[in-house]
Design brief:
This protein is α+β, with helices and mostly antiparallel strands. The protein has one domain. The chain has 3 helices and 6 strands. The protein has a 4-stranded antiparallel beta sheet. A hairpin with a 4-residue loop joins strand 2 and strand 3.
């Protein structure tokens, strides 16, 4: 099955606070409140998209989700490279496209 590899990074000298907000909104974040008594998950855009994170700044997704991801990355002026690839069986299983 065809997939897309998205390689990205934020611009050099991006403030750490901006990078933190980016990660929270992109990947989501597990958080707690009241001294750790309550745990919850802040949703990110990848919570609704099947993906596989290979290393920092490299994800595999389905081509149909490419526009959503690229639109988000564009808001942060990220440097982005995209290529069409053939997904391996292991990738398909992790993304949830194969049993």
């Amino acid at each position: 099955m065809q997939g897309a590899i998205v390689i990205f990074r934020l611009p050099p000298k991006t403030k750490q606070s901006v990078a933190n907000v980016f990660c929270q909104r992109f990947y989501g974040q597990d958080a707690s409140s009241h001294g750790g008594k309550y745990r919850y998950h802040r949703r990110g855009i990848l919570d609704d998209i099947p993906y596989r994170k290979l290393i920092r700044g490299v994800i595999l997704i389905e081509p149909r989700d490419l526009d959503t991801v690229l639109t988000f990355l564009d808001r942060y002026d990220a440097e982005v490279y995209v290529r069409s690839i053939r997904l391996a069986a292991e990738d398909l299983q992790i993304i949830g496209l194969s049993q």
